[in-house]
Design a protein that fits this description.
The complex is a heterodimer of chains A (245) and B (306).
Chain A: H1 4-16, H2 20-40, H3 54-85, H4 87-93, H5 100-127, H6 136-160, H7 164-182, H8 193-199, H9 203-216, H10 222-242
Helix pairs in contact in A: 1-5, 2-3, 2-5, 3-5, 3-6, 3-7, 3-9, 5-6, 6-9, 6-10, 7-9, 9-10
Chain B: E1 7-10, E2 15-20, H1 26-34, E3 44-46, H2 55-58, E4 62-65, H3 77-84, H4 92-98, H5 114-126, E5 132-136, H6 144-159, E6 163-167, H7 171-177, E7 180-185, E8 188-193, H8 195-202, E9 205-211, H9 217-225, E10 229-235, E11 238-244, H10 247-257, E12 266-268, H11 272-285, E13 299-302
Parallel strand pairs in B: 1-13, 2-6, 2-7, 3-13, 4-5, 5-6
Antiparallel strand pairs in B: 7-8, 9-11, 9-12, 10-11
Helix pairs in contact in B: 8-11
The chains are: A mainly alpha (245), B alpha/beta (306).
Chain lengths: 245, 306
């Protein structure tokens, strides 16, 4: 695969495996926090978790945490650092087509999140078990749509923020509240009404609903799925425009 | 406006230097040539392509060594070759060998010294058999031996028919490598020509100094009467002769006739650096006069058909 995208994907995948930020936030952080919080609430079905097993609730929620960490933390820092240090200029001058870098980042982001999700499920399986998937096609549609949305948001942030430090600051500021309110924190039923109102429209909340509800058989989450699809479309178009090298 | 009214022809197969003070617009010019920056107006033609609208056809034919750019920190040298190799690529291993990087194949970019990074950028610029190579501050940070190696590589590249556009602050580099030099100031070309011609036009004064405690009166008279000598002065035993560089031979011949020849004979031959300084200072004085290029139409042709 000696096309420009192929060469970029090959190099970027190698670099991902050597990046401590990726290994920490995309691979280690979701697994460690899932093990902690999944264990904290036990395995007995509970009203706060819509009468599902709490640990299964978190297993079904944490795939979106992996994807959000890739989009909000890993990619913005990675891209802003490239732009700040002149790496993108070098790619442009070397003849990589304008669209190739964005395409490569999308592919690398998808591969990275897929690998991290598989690892998370492999760790969850012997500890909490993998919950049965009630509505497989909705989950199968929501996950890639959400991945495209968050990866595009990451590319967009990386192209807008002026430096790697700024990208890290903004990325973490976006990620942690989203993570606590929309996926890895307390379930919505125990949140106060004001917090619930803030959490409801967050992109990660919508994405997590679109995956968790059909997975655990809690509903179809059609509204959330449509919102995720709209985010994916809008963010990918904007990201493609911004990443013209 | 950084560059204005620039007229720059780079004939195919030549090494052309772009020199000038900081902020003259040299890097902006090469960024336009590479299609990294869009000119507000004017015509730009590189190897027969428009760098903005035909970037995808042009860029594979151009090798660039950019100022202020980098590679990903954790990318290994061999992986960089893989990343930048197109169908036109030559054997990267040979280039690494030629530039003394063969032993660093597995080293990551962040572990390379400044000189090694520069050499790697040069390897990457040459990797895909470019028809035009743009080298921006080529030998910045290199030790003298590494500079000479890089110069030899550029000459070899040019012998193979590659056109080279060299942006540099190192006048000895421009003098050693370039067949033509273009001098820029405030975004305009203020003169151009072979280095020797620029020196002739803007810094032709040579200065010869030697010690002679009791110089014969006949020698002093003869020195004053030599063609092109402008000034002969004496301070104690130190005698200074100023004039066109042709006087070097005449003064040498006169000293041989009036033995003993002084042991401390010192000759300051004007260089391209002197020419640049003379040109920039002169240009400051004569800014109202249009230079040969500033009044020309906007037209840039690099390495195109001759």
């Amino acid at each position: 695969m000696n096309t420009a995208v192929g060469r970029l994907v090959r190099a970027e995948l190698r670099l991902m495996t050597r990046d401590p930020l990726v290994l920490t936030f995309v691979f280690a952080f979701p697994i460690v926090t899932m093990l902690i919080i999944g264990g904290a609430f036990g395995t007995t079905p509970d009203r706060a978790f819509e009468f599902t097993n709490p640990s299964h609730w978190y297993v079904a929620s944490y795939l979106t945490v992996v994807i959000a960490a890739t989009g909000l933390v890993m990619l913005p820092v990675h891209l802003a650092s490239y732009r700040e240090r002149g790496v993108l200029r070098r790619f442009a001058a070397a003849g990589f087509p304008r669209w190739s870098f964005a395409a490569a980042q999308l592919i690398v982001g998808l591969v990275t999140t897929a690998a991290a999700c598989v690892l998370l499920l492999a760790v969850a399986a012997p500890v909490y078990g993998i919950p049965a998937v009630h509505d497989g096609w909705r989950v199968a549609v929501a996950l890639p749509l959400g991945a495209v949305a968050f990866i595009s948001i990451g590319v967009l942030l990386g192209s807008l923020l002026p430096s790697a430090r700024a990208a890290q600051a903004v990325g973490l500021l976006l990620f942690f509240p989203s993570f606590l309110l929309g996926a890895g924190g307390p379930p919505p039923h125990v949140m106060g009404s004001a917090v619930k109102q803030v959490a409801g429209p967050l992109p990660l909340t919508l994405f997590t609903n679109a995956v968790r509800e059909p997975w655990l058989g809690l509903g179809s989450a059609t509204g959330s799925l449509i919102a995720v699809a709209a985010m994916a479309a809008a963010a990918s178009v904007l990201a493609a425009r911004r990443t013209a090298l | 406006m950084v560059v204005d009214g620039l007229d720059l022809d780079v004939p195919a197969g030549e090494i052309v230097g772009l020199i000038g003070a900081n902020g003259a617009g040299k890097t902006t010019t090469v960024e336009c040539v590479q299609g990294l920056r869009k000119p507000d107006s004017g015509q730009l033609n590189v190897l027969g392509f428009n760098p903005v609208t035909q970037a995808e056809q042009l860029r594979p034919l151009v090798g660039s060594q950019l100022q202020d750019s980098a590679l990903p920190d954790r990318l290994r040298v061999a992986e960089a070759l893989d990343l930048f190799s197109t169908q036109r690529a030559r054997d990267g291993g040979e280039l690494l060998e030629q530039f003394g990087l063969a032993k660093r194949r597995r080293s990551v970019f962040s572990s390379l010294s400044g000189g090694e990074r520069q050499r790697l950028f040069l390897v990457l610029a040459l990797l895909n058999r470019p028809l035009l190579v743009i080298l921006d501050e080529l030998t910045q940070g290199l030790d003298p031996a590494a500079r000479r190696n890089v110069w030899a590589a550029v000459r070899q590249l040019n012998d193979e028919g590659t056109t080279v556009l060299l942006v540099t602050h190192e006048m000895d580099e421009a003098e050693a490598l370039c067949g033509q030099v273009v001098v820029m100031r405030d975004g305009r070309v203020i003169d151009a020509g072979a280095p020797a011609d620029l020196v002739e036009r803007h810094a032709s004064t040579a200065v010869i100094r030697f010690s002679m405690p009791n110089p014969p009166a006949g020698l002093m008279d003869e020195l004053r009467q030599l063609d092109d000598v402008r000034e002969v002065s004496r301070a104690g035993s130190l005698i200074t002769v100023r004039g066109h560089r042709r006087i070097i031979a005449y003064v040498g011949a006169a000293l041989v006739r009036w033995e003993p020849v002084p042991a401390d004979l010192n000759v300051d031959v004007p260089s391209l650096e002197d020419a640049l300084l003379g040109l920039l200072n002169g240009h400051q004085r004569d800014q109202a006069e249009p230079s040969w290029a500033a009044s020309a139409i906007n037209h840039e042709l690099i390495g195109g058909p001759q």
